[in-house]
Write a structure and sequence with these properties.
- The protein is of the alpha/beta class and 356 residues long.
- Helix content is 49%, strand content 12%.
- Helix 1 links the parallel strand 1 and strand 2.
- Helix 1 packs parallel to helix 2 and helix 4 packs across helix 5.
- The protein is elongated, with a radius of gyration of 42 Å.
Length: 356
Amino acid sequence: MAQTQYHLHLKGYVGGYDFDRNYVDYVLARNEGKPVNVLIDSLGGSLATALSIASAFKNHGDVTVHFVGMNASAATIASLGAKRITMDASAMYLVHKCSAEFFEWGNLNADQLAAVRDNCEAAIRDLNKLDNNVASMYASKCSKPHADLLDLMKEGGWLSAKEALEWGFVDEVTDLGETKPVLTDAVASALAEAGLPIPNVPTESKETLFARFLASIASLFKTVKAEAETAPAAPSTNQEEVFSNHNEQTKPKAQSDPMNQFLPLLGKALNTEGFAVGEEGTSLSLEQLKNVEAALSAKDQRIAELADELAAVKKSPADSSTAVINEGTSDKHQPQDGVQSYVETCNQATLYNLVP
């Protein structure tokens, strides 16, 4: 089946910029006397705009509306002026009674409460008239009794495409491969705010973008770690690294036996590439013992040299830091106290300033 070309895409809030009567009039006028295809995907909105668009569709005379996604309230009313209405097999359809905003807050006396009551009764009468008018429009489309449509509007439940077809709200159910509706957090909030029931459709994944970002970073480190563990060791000219690598390649498997361990430092002192203590102990040659003695003597000598250097440093302390100034600064430079020094350090720390 060839892909349908739509002249109008009406989505979002009925009465908003993307479901606007003026734009509908503009497109219909440009296609006067020609068939017009309209795609609707909306949870509803302004009844006034919906009635106006339904009238515009009816006056044009050759409008086909196709529903995708979840459609409710004013979005379904807007379609009632179309010559033909189709619906994707995965889409949803909902009708309900009209509603009006109501808010009253404060400490009211008897007269004020009576006024609120009168206003509520007037609003109820107006809403009943609107409900009867909309029910008549639905009944005309569905060829069913007016009372049945009022009962359905009062119930306000979501209808599948098949149920919408059985009621007569649509003329045909199609399977054009449109994306199936997904219940996002934003859509669920909009439904709750409008007092509409939540449909039984697949929900959006709860995994946030930030969580997916962290997961991707974690997988990156896992990949790098796995590559590092499996990559062959690079050649090294450092004697300690060579000896350590030799140890890893040649050490016995029974690592849990303390008498079956390589002793790398002792092996280094003995100038041998491999040295291990087995269950029966080990033995050293005279040459190896001399090597150990020489290594210990060298360490003692180095420790003595470091002690002499430390004593020399203590005898000649550095100048006081208050006498040191940066080159190019004014002679009037004064030593900073702790607070000034901290503030200056923070101001110079670019990375610190970038942290939110």
